[in-house]
Write a structure and sequence with these properties.
single chain; UDP-n-acetylglucosamine1-carboxyvinyl-transferase, Chain; about 425 residues; binds shikimate-3-phosphate; four-stranded mixed β-sheet
């Protein structure tokens, strides 16, 4: 459904939270169900992607009962999962497809993995290559979904250097490695989010990090209750809306503050954003706290390529913010953005230009020229945003409403539910959704 968004709300002291973290929600089921047992997950993200993971685990034989965003999980243990499942549909969810591939090979399950049109275009060789080296038996693989997994003879451990900095690839290899014989080592020259390592450790696994090398081995783990902190990537949209608004104070409570996920806050601070971080403690090996944000005047920054993996999901919204910061912002080496749910480089550049804002892509760098004046830009009338059904493009460009006189028309707001359940309610705190 289209969203028509106009203007912004001003002079507000907003206190809110956002739904549970997407990455931790996926892992709380894909890794949490490896041991046999019963446990609960609190604040599970009931987004479309995370609901897909629920369905996939149910198809494999796990009992999951949900009440709002609390799950009661009863797992037979990974070795008792159904061994022959006709189809597992990962829909739009890259994290489900990549992580479950490691589990399918490790648990020796025969199945066919499929996805929607977007997921069926995204690269899977980066996951399948190491899994095949470990002994995974993949049939007739052409680089993308659908993928047919046949029974294998058991996996052997691997020492593997990630060819692309990807937490999804790292996680697939670590999950398969945990289910293999021997010690699996993954080398990541550029760090990526480490929720897989943190959760395995929380459940009792022997997993170590030494420099850029992570090692894991099959070791006794048990089911444990898991609490999912609020998603910092979802929070980023509200934070950026508050920054670009007028005299807004925003508090986002109980947000995941994992170092690998809060780099975008450091970048916003370097741009001049007033953001306070109030640490509150640790839940299942992950730091949690509140973020207090004040509307701020911003300036452009240069972001080097090794930082990109730790802000990969926030680049669309940071690009919109950069368009209203003084001077130029450069994101170096963003080619990975082209193989996300849509070609996000194209989505960012094309949609910013539609709003008469300046963005270019050359030599893998994304360059935004800030349009910096007090108040709103002169863009009037309406600006139609093409999302290509990409949730982060839809939400990033809603933030334009904070600065433009124009009405923002998002061609498909529903896709925001892929990662941000009930997104409209949260965004409505900042902007006026019109019929
Ligand atoms: C994710 C890792 C990132 C991110 C995605 C979630 C994860 O992808 O873009 O939204 O949960 O591991 P890559 O690691 O493939 O870049």
């Amino acid at each position: 459904m289209k969203a028509v968004i106009k203007g912004c709300k001003a002079n507000f002291d907003i206190i809110t939270t956002v739904p549970g973290d997407k990455s931790i929600s996926h892992r709380s089921l894909i890794i949490g169900t490896i041991p046999k047992g019963v446990y609960t997950i609190e604040n599970y993200a009931m987004s479309e992607d995370c609901k897909t993971t629920i369905e996939v685990l149910k198809s494999l034989g796990v009992s999951i009962v949900s009440h709002e965003n609390k799950l009661l999980v009863n797992s037979p243990g990974v070795y008792e999962f159904h061994k022959d499942v006709e189809i597992l549909d990962c829909k739009n969810s890259g994290t489900t497809a990549r992580l479950i591939s490691g589990l399918i090979c490790g648990a020796n399950i025969k199945t066919k993995l499929i996805g929607d049109e977007s997921l069926s275009k995204r690269p899977m060789g980066r996951v399948i290559d190491p899994l095949e080296v470990m002994g995974g038996n993949i049939y007739d693989f052409k680089g993308t979904l659908p993928i047919r997994f046949e029974k294998n003879r058991g996996l052997t451990s691997i020492e593997y250097e990630l060819p692309v900095p990807s937490a999804q690839v790292k996680s697939a290899v670590l999950i398969a490695g945990f289910l293999s014989n021997g010690v699996t080592k993954v080398i990541e020259p550029i760090p990526t989010r480490d929720h897989t390592e943190n959760l395995f450790k929380f459940l009792g696994a022997r997993v170590e990090k030494c420099g850029d090398k992570i090692s894991i081995e099959n070791s006794p783990i048990i089911c444990k209750d898991i609490i999912v902190p609020a998603d910092p990537s979802s929070a980023s949209f509200l934070i950026c809306a508050a920054l670009l608004g007028h005299n807004i104070k925003l508090t986002v409570q109980n947000v995941l503050l994992n170092e690998s996920r809060k780099t975008y806050i450091d970048i916003l601070k370097a741009m001049g954003a007033s953001i306070e971080i109030v640490g509150k403690g640790i839940v299942n090996n992950e730091p949690v706290g509140d973020l207090v944000v004040y509307s701020s005047e911003l300036k452009g920054v240069k972001i080097e390529h090794h930082i990109i993996p730790s802000i990969i999901d926030e680049i669309p919204v940071l690009s919109v913010v950069a368009a209203f910061a003084a001077g130029e912002t450069v994101f170096q080496g963003v080619e990975e953005l082209k193989v996300k749910e849509s070609d996000r480089v194209e989505g960012i550049v094309k949609n910013l230009r539609k709003a008469n804002l300046k963005a270019t892509y050359s030599n893998n760098n994304l360059i935004i020229q800030g349009f910096h004046v007090e108040g709103e830009t002169s863009t009037e009338g309406s600006v139609s945003i093409e999302t290509n059904n990409d949730h982060r493009i839809a939400m990033a460009f809603a933030i334009l409403a904070m600065k433009l006189k124009a009405t923002i028309i998002i061609d498909n707001w529903d896709c925001s539910e892929i990662s941000f359940p009930d997104s409209k309610t949260y965004f409505s705190k900042f902007m006026n959704f019109m019929k």
